[in-house]
Structures are given as structure tokens and as C-alpha cells.
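Posting this for the archive.
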Amino acid sequence: MKLTIIGTGSMAIALANGLKDKFQLEFVGRDKEVLKLLQSQYDATTYLIDGFDISDKNIILAVKPYALQSVGALLKGQASNLYSILASTSLDKLKNAISSKHYIRVMPNVSAKYLKSTSLIVGDESLKEEVELIFGSIGSVFWLSSEKEIDIATSVAGSGPALLALVAEAMMDGLVKEGMKRVDAMAITSSLFEGFAPLIKDMHPALIKDSVMSPAGTTAGAYGQLEKDGVRGSFMEAIARAYEVTKR
């Protein structure tokens, strides 16, 4: 299957890195030099966006949300399938900007580069097999029942890597603050996150916490401090704030 990626930013490249071994890729963008580099890196055909004909193509739209209208005005023809990764951009907005037979909203994340994306899906369910073939090749796929749900879940699946990065950085800084070398703090925290993945997959977070926390122990002390500082509530408010942004 040939996939046409419109956009050359970090998310487009993360997707391309995950898809390159299973699909034939072509790129569409504005910058000739960037396209030339992508042509070399991915052995892909590249095109300038002005006047590009999307007729009968499988399009992955990976531009900035604010650029939707200007990008749509440069394209011609009707795509076969349009897979949009534009955050907080409704199916109706996509239909008004770009012509396609079928429309899908997808919210992947940067872990697509390592085939570990969490991809949220909503849209034309007649494409379910194709969607799972494409985005299942770069990680886990979750079909949701409404656009409201994909906007809510974006705060975790899309923004989550940045939120977890904040947690990781704080842990590293805490170790350094107490006297550990930065390189060791980074390695230990990285290993922690790697080992946590199978735990959270098989156990409820409360059970993980209870299995680690002993009476008056180090975990109880650390956990109590986090609760005192309102960290749990702050994270819940962060999710709510991210969702509010998607409704603008």
C-alpha cells in the first residue's frame, strides 16, 4: 500500500519512521530542501504541495491544525481515504477543507517512531481493517465512539509523553539534588519507566502502589508528600485543561 504523507514536521517523521518498512511512502511539503532530504532518507517520491493532486490516494494529513484551510486550498482532486492526525480538528472541518471519499481522525503520538504509539481512532468504520493495518503497525489502536471521546483521550494519548517526561525529569532532578551523578540518575529513571510498562498493563495503579508501599516506609513517605502537595489533583486538572483546549 502506498501512503502519502502531507507534512514534514516531527510527527510526520515519527510516523514515517514507524511505517517505512511496511508501506511505500511519498511526502508532500512546502520546503524543497526538506523534501530532498526525505527523498534520500526514505527512498521516497516527494512533491511540492502547491497544486498536488490527491485523487485516489491514501492521505495521512500531518500538518499543523491552523494550516488546514491554507493546505486544503493548495490541493486538487478527491482522495480515496484521508487519515488526519490534526489535534482538535473535527471531521466536519476536514470535510470542508479537503475532498475525500472517506475520513478518519487519528491521534497517534511520537512513540510511533519506536512502534509503540497509542493511536486513538474515530470516523468511517468501513475503513476499520485498513486503519488497523496502518496504525496497528506502529503500536496500539483504540477505536472510540465519538469525537468528544477522542478529544478527551488526546490529553493522555497525545500529550501524555510530555506529561510523563515531566515526571521523569523531576525524578532525575530529585536524585541529582540528593547527590547522584546526572548520568546515573538518567539511566536509573529510564530503566524504571521501561519496567513500569508491563506492570501498568497487567495491574490497576492502586494495586501497584499497595504492593510497593510498606508501613512507615520510603514509599509511604514519598507518596504522602506528593498527596500533601496536591500532585494527583494537579494531574487531573491538567487533563481537564488539555481537553478544554481541544474545544476552542
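The mean pLDDT is 94. Strands lie at 2-6, 24-29, 45-48, 58-61, 79-84, 100-107, 117-123, 139-143.
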